[in-house]
Amino acid sequence: MDITIRKAKLGDLEALMTWRMTVLHEVFSIPQDDPMEVLEQKNRLYYQTALPSGEHTACFAMADDKIIGCGGICFQREMPSPDNPDGGCAYLMNIYTCPEFRGKGVGRKVVNWLIQQAQSRGIEKIYLETSEIGRSLYQEIGFTDMQGYMKLSVK
Predict the structure, then answer these.
(1) Rounded mean pLDDT of 16-34?
(2) Quick one: how far is CA 27 from the chain centroid?
Protein backbone atom coordinates (compact mmCIF):
# COMPACT_ATOMS: atom_id res chain seq x y z
CA MET A 1 0.00 0.00 0.00
CA ASP A 2 1.37 3.37 -1.03
CA ILE A 3 0.76 5.96 1.69
CA THR A 4 1.35 9.64 1.02
CA ILE A 5 1.03 12.60 3.36
CA ARG A 6 -0.74 15.73 2.16
CA LYS A 7 -0.74 19.06 3.94
CA ALA A 8 -4.27 20.20 4.74
CA LYS A 9 -5.39 23.63 3.63
CA LEU A 10 -8.25 25.86 4.70
CA GLY A 11 -10.16 24.53 1.67
CA ASP A 12 -10.10 21.14 3.43
CA LEU A 13 -12.03 22.55 6.39
CA GLU A 14 -14.98 20.15 6.14
CA ALA A 15 -12.69 17.11 5.97
CA LEU A 16 -10.61 18.49 8.85
CA MET A 17 -13.75 18.92 10.94
CA THR A 18 -15.00 15.41 10.18
CA TRP A 19 -11.69 13.90 11.21
CA ARG A 20 -11.32 16.12 14.29
CA MET A 21 -14.74 15.16 15.59
CA THR A 22 -13.97 11.47 14.95
CA VAL A 23 -10.79 11.81 17.00
CA LEU A 24 -12.58 13.59 19.84
CA HIS A 25 -15.31 10.95 19.99
CA GLU A 26 -12.78 8.12 20.13
CA VAL A 27 -10.14 9.64 22.41
CA PHE A 28 -12.63 11.00 24.94
CA SER A 29 -15.08 8.07 24.61
CA ILE A 30 -17.91 10.44 23.71
CA PRO A 31 -21.04 8.66 22.48
CA GLN A 32 -21.88 9.46 18.86
CA ASP A 33 -25.26 10.93 19.82
CA ASP A 34 -23.87 13.40 22.38
CA PRO A 35 -24.37 17.03 21.31
CA MET A 36 -21.05 18.49 20.19
CA GLU A 37 -22.15 21.67 18.39
CA VAL A 38 -20.29 24.09 20.66
CA LEU A 39 -17.05 22.09 20.55
CA GLU A 40 -17.38 21.67 16.80
CA GLN A 41 -17.88 25.42 16.37
CA LYS A 42 -14.80 26.18 18.50
CA ASN A 43 -12.68 23.70 16.53
CA ARG A 44 -13.89 25.18 13.24
CA LEU A 45 -12.91 28.68 14.41
CA TYR A 46 -9.54 27.34 15.57
CA TYR A 47 -8.76 25.91 12.11
CA GLN A 48 -10.01 29.07 10.39
CA THR A 49 -7.52 31.22 12.31
CA ALA A 50 -4.61 28.87 13.10
CA LEU A 51 -4.10 27.36 9.62
CA PRO A 52 -3.69 30.69 7.78
CA SER A 53 -1.49 32.13 10.53
CA GLY A 54 0.83 29.12 10.51
CA GLU A 55 0.16 28.47 14.19
CA HIS A 56 -1.13 25.00 13.23
CA THR A 57 -0.22 22.58 10.47
CA ALA A 58 -2.54 19.69 9.70
CA CYS A 59 -2.13 16.79 7.32
CA PHE A 60 -3.92 13.80 5.88
CA ALA A 61 -2.55 10.32 5.23
CA MET A 62 -3.73 9.24 1.79
CA ALA A 63 -4.02 5.84 0.12
CA ASP A 64 -5.47 5.69 -3.39
CA ASP A 65 -6.85 9.25 -3.07
CA LYS A 66 -8.70 8.27 0.12
CA ILE A 67 -8.02 9.86 3.51
CA ILE A 68 -7.05 7.09 5.93
CA GLY A 69 -5.51 9.14 8.73
CA CYS A 70 -4.71 12.60 9.96
CA GLY A 71 -2.55 14.60 12.31
CA GLY A 72 -1.68 18.08 13.39
CA ILE A 73 0.96 20.12 15.15
CA CYS A 74 0.56 23.43 17.00
CA PHE A 75 3.50 25.81 17.09
CA GLN A 76 4.18 28.06 20.06
CA ARG A 77 6.90 29.82 21.99
CA GLU A 78 7.92 29.34 25.57
CA MET A 79 10.52 31.17 27.56
CA PRO A 80 14.01 30.05 26.56
CA SER A 81 15.57 27.54 28.94
CA PRO A 82 18.64 25.28 29.05
CA ASP A 83 16.72 22.46 27.36
CA ASN A 84 15.21 24.81 24.76
CA PRO A 85 17.41 27.92 24.27
CA ASP A 86 15.38 29.30 21.35
CA GLY A 87 12.01 28.79 23.07
CA GLY A 88 10.27 27.37 20.00
CA CYS A 89 8.18 24.32 20.72
CA ALA A 90 5.35 22.34 19.22
CA TYR A 91 2.47 20.20 20.40
CA LEU A 92 1.72 17.11 18.35
CA MET A 93 -1.97 16.25 18.31
CA ASN A 94 -4.94 14.72 16.55
CA ILE A 95 -2.95 11.74 15.27
CA TYR A 96 -5.45 9.20 14.01
CA THR A 97 -5.57 6.25 11.65
CA CYS A 98 -8.72 4.47 10.48
CA PRO A 99 -8.95 1.20 12.41
CA GLU A 100 -8.68 -0.96 9.27
CA PHE A 101 -5.34 0.68 8.38
CA ARG A 102 -3.70 0.52 11.81
CA GLY A 103 -0.44 -1.38 12.11
CA LYS A 104 0.58 -0.54 8.52
CA GLY A 105 2.83 2.46 9.23
CA VAL A 106 0.25 5.19 8.61
CA GLY A 107 0.61 6.84 12.02
CA ARG A 108 4.41 6.67 11.81
CA LYS A 109 4.36 8.45 8.43
CA VAL A 110 2.04 11.16 9.78
CA VAL A 111 4.14 11.70 12.91
CA ASN A 112 7.43 11.77 10.99
CA TRP A 113 5.98 14.24 8.47
CA LEU A 114 4.81 16.54 11.28
CA ILE A 115 8.19 16.28 13.04
CA GLN A 116 9.83 17.35 9.78
CA GLN A 117 7.51 20.37 9.64
CA ALA A 118 8.67 21.34 13.14
CA GLN A 119 12.33 20.77 12.30
CA SER A 120 12.03 22.96 9.21
CA ARG A 121 11.03 25.80 11.59
CA GLY A 122 13.98 25.14 13.87
CA ILE A 123 11.79 23.57 16.57
CA GLU A 124 13.69 21.16 18.79
CA LYS A 125 11.11 20.48 21.52
CA ILE A 126 7.88 18.62 20.70
CA TYR A 127 5.25 17.60 23.24
CA LEU A 128 2.32 15.25 22.95
CA GLU A 129 -0.31 13.42 24.94
CA THR A 130 -0.82 9.78 24.04
CA SER A 131 -3.36 7.04 24.34
CA GLU A 132 -2.14 3.57 25.19
CA ILE A 133 -2.70 2.59 21.54
CA GLY A 134 -0.16 5.19 20.39
CA ARG A 135 2.39 4.93 23.20
CA SER A 136 4.65 2.29 21.59
CA LEU A 137 4.78 4.19 18.28
CA TYR A 138 5.87 7.40 20.00
CA GLN A 139 8.46 5.55 22.09
CA GLU A 140 9.89 3.89 18.95
CA ILE A 141 10.21 7.32 17.32
CA GLY A 142 12.08 8.62 20.38
CA PHE A 143 9.52 10.36 22.58
CA THR A 144 10.04 9.86 26.30
CA ASP A 145 7.78 10.33 29.30
CA MET A 146 8.06 13.72 30.96
CA GLN A 147 8.29 13.71 34.69
CA GLY A 148 7.43 16.66 36.86
CA TYR A 149 4.50 17.93 34.83
CA MET A 150 1.11 18.61 36.32
CA LYS A 151 -2.17 19.93 34.96
CA LEU A 152 -4.84 22.18 36.42
CA SER A 153 -8.23 22.34 34.71
CA VAL A 154 -9.84 25.66 35.63
CA LYS A 155 -13.57 25.94 34.99
Answers:
(1) 91
(2) 12
